[in-house]
């Protein structure tokens, strides 16, 4: 199998108001749209995109559909690339979650805590990795772009770079930014670049 580039593009700014946002389907703000447009220009200047996959949530999907149509690119809208299902916690203020469950983020990632009514971290990780495996088996071309969420990107970075989730979380992809990996089946991925959007 030939090597290819995998770009993980995080959706842009949303009106989250300090709340935990998982499957809540919020649109991008105007800033969020500018962030993605700026990153698309940068990504396209590095190498033409040959295939696109996206989360079905509108903060990812609308951008992906627009560029797939304008570039006549193969597009996969994949529910397994949606953000984690936080269940009853979705939409709750982060400050309130931290007050009720100090250290909840770390406990979630290492399996000691699961959001009520949502999915466990292991369920989330399993579905994301299965989604990637299926897409990679059918996607074609040397530059594949996934438009998705921060949690999904961190799971993929940890898996593809062979590191712990806690380490991958330190390589934060800002909203509207992207990580780019060099991929070759049977070999570890290499991190090529980690960039923030250059939009205001």
From TrEMBL:
Coiled coil: none annotated. One of its GO terms (molecular function) is phosphatase activity. Gene3D superfamilies: Phosphoglycerate mutase-like. One of its GO terms (cellular component) is cytoplasm. InterPro entries: His_Pase_superF_clade-1 (IPR013078), His_PPase_superfam (IPR029033), PGM_Phosphatase (IPR050275). PANTHER family: BROAD-SPECIFICITY PHOSPHATASE YOR283W-RELATED, GLUCOSYL-3-PHOSPHOGLYCERATE PHOSPHATASE. This is Histidine phosphatase family protein. It comes from Chromobacterium sinusclupearum.
């Amino acid at each position: 199998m030939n090597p290819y580039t995998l770009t993980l593009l995080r959706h842009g700014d949303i009106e989250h108001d300090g709340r935990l946002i998982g499957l809540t389907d919020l649109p991008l703000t105007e800033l969020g749209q500018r962030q993605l447009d700026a990153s698309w220009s940068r990504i396209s200047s590095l190498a033409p995109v040959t295939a696109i996959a996206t989360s079905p949530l509108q903060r990812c999907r609308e951008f992906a559909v627009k560029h797939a149509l304008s570039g006549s690119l193969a597009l996969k809208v994949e529910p397994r690339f949606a953000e984690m299902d936080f269940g009853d916690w979705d939409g709750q203020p982060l400050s309130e979650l931290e007050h009720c469950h100090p250290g909840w983020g770390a406990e979630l990632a290492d399996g000691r805590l699961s959001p009520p009514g949502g999915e466990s971290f292991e369920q989330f990780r399993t579905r994301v990795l299965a989604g990637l495996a299926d897409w990679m088996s059918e996607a074609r071309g040397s530059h594949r772009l996934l438009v998705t969420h921060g949690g999904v990107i961190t799971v993929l970075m940890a898996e593809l770079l062979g590191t712990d989730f806690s380490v991958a979380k330190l390589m934060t992809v800002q909203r509207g930014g992207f990580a780019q990996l060099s991929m070759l089946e049977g070999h570890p991925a290499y991190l090529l670049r980690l960039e923030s959007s250059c939009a205001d």
